[in-house]
Amino acid sequence: MIYRFQKEEKQEILTGHLHLGGASPGGERIDVNSAYLTRGGKPWIPVMGEFHFSRYNRDQWAEELGKMKAGGITLVSTYLFWIYHEEIEGNFDFSKDKDIRAFVSECGRAGLEVVLRIGPWAHGECRNGGFPDWLLQKTYPLRGNHPEYLSQVKRWYARIAAEVRGLFYRDGGNIVAIQLENEFGGGAEHLAALKRIALECGLDAPLFTVTGWNSAAGVEIPVDEVVPVFGGYCEAPWERHTRPLPPSPHYFFNRMRNDSAIGADLTTYTKPAGEDSWQLPYERYPFATCELGGGIQVTHHRRPIIHPMDIYAVALVKLGDGNNLPGYYMYHGGTNQIGQRTTLQESRASGYPNDYPILSYDFQAALSEYGEVRGQYRLLNLLHLFVQDFQQDFAPLGAVDALEKIERNDMVSLRYGMRTDGYKGYVFINHYQRLTKLRDVAHVVIDTGSVVFPPIDVKGEISFFLPFMMKLGTGTSSVILEYATAQPVCHMDSVYFFVEIPGISSVYRFTDGREVKADAGRDSLFWMEQTGIVTLTWEEANYLRRLDCIQEADHGSCLYLGEECDLYCCDGKLCCVQPGKHVYYRWDGKKFLPFSIGEPADEPKIAWQPVLEAPFELPYEGELQIGGERTVIWKKFTVEGEHGFISIEEDYDVAQIYADGRLVADHYYYGRPWRVPAELLAGKECYLVMSERKDDFYREF
Question: Which numeric CATH code is attached to 18-265+279-340+349-390?
């Protein structure tokens, strides 16, 4: 069957209308038009990943930021939770793991830029949405333009500004954006006031953003003063019921920016009757995201299991729909701190609709609470490598819909979309719906209007995109790829790397009529004039990384292939996420050369002992009794060896681990083994405390 597209409706790109942008001391500018961001006057697609510095040990920031950069992140977004820094009124704390200046500087050393999400209200599944308890006890209304509240906000913003003074883009630093508030639906006047206060305090970056959801019409914003950013999750832990959800619309090419269901548990604003209607003017802003789910947090009443394709397919669909700033929440999980007076997680006890673990903010993210790699980390990097290398050509391409609209419950029809300028571009196909099997589609012929692809069969759980009329190489040595039935990933000089789509043969056809059917593998290089093409297998491409390591400076920026191991760079040194000795390959311009990294490492050993009676009174027993009284079981254990992880495969509702009498980890069981780093437990007297599991939550196991 032939699949065609609707007529492309080119929209005028507006420039100079937004009161945003800024220059570095060297004169480079970051600006934004109605379609995309620019840097130095050229289209720019940053890739943003959320990582909360205050939820991680600062001694490990450099290592984890190296992993993020290796995964294709270029922009780190991070919340400043007010309650973390001023739990007691008047006593600010920006020390140790709360040192935002040290974190921003560490990002700079890793070659990463920063988005500060300064609140004042943040959410982030933090107690009171990040507001200190003392602020809630004030007599004036919060999250609005009451003078006394704005005075408190100004005091908070001023302290943040003092901590990061000199680190902004205008100063030659790496803070390029600021997010004001979060999930706010109270009107544009307050957001405008927050921007004014931020600027008065010295919080000045080229980009100011706000979250754009919270109503079907989009949040009311001060038009042209901020960029609205959006999100899309594969599950909804904020839903209060325990039933399965209907098919997510984020797996369809529908150009939906605004998912008004995000955070619906906390949306309280209702526009008064009689006010003028509002519709967010999307046409004035690029499609940008800050909360594409990099995973999803487990709540006590909803415990989904996230699979890598759950995340990758949503990100790919949004890219096909026109997203020009992929941003993930969370990209890296973390661990909540415990305050001086209270725990700091969101819970029903603190007046919120959901119960979350006291400590764990793992989020089933691309990088786990303890820095382990999950499958979506590898898949997403395929997209990140692509946008980094082809952003200047890709960002201006408009999104074009399929000729036939696909309904939300349609699990049979082909899901496809296109980014194009009317001549060249990319066809996007998604054959994945979370928790639902889609029917295979045979003999798919894509007609872009300028190119007709050969028939392919779309089957299995796959999401991919294919290029057409793509220029490879530069100058007189360039060639035009009429189409390829393989997905482009990146290039190094004149060699272009593609990945073979599972179930689809890799065919490259050029405008001069030449055609190559390529075998896949790291040694698959073929040349077309002076342009080389390598087709990697899907499995190989999962471990493809572009890294800059000082120890291999003579090679500059290099491509690496780990042999089922994840490579990254930290402090100029090539590292591997997994302990032990591993094989990897480095591209030398013509082939991948083999090397090895690491030393053999022993797995940690765990020894269990029964416990007949509780050895001490539990300081956080309430977490074990959520939803009613439950039987509690104790187990004592010791861990030998500080490298690697122990895996707890018990059956429970909630589990806590105490090491030398201190709560160091907790977990809601959701059907997967609980992975805990041995270094957290080695050499300590450890107890595992578990409450009985009941059938009182949504589950997928």
Answer: 3.20.20.80
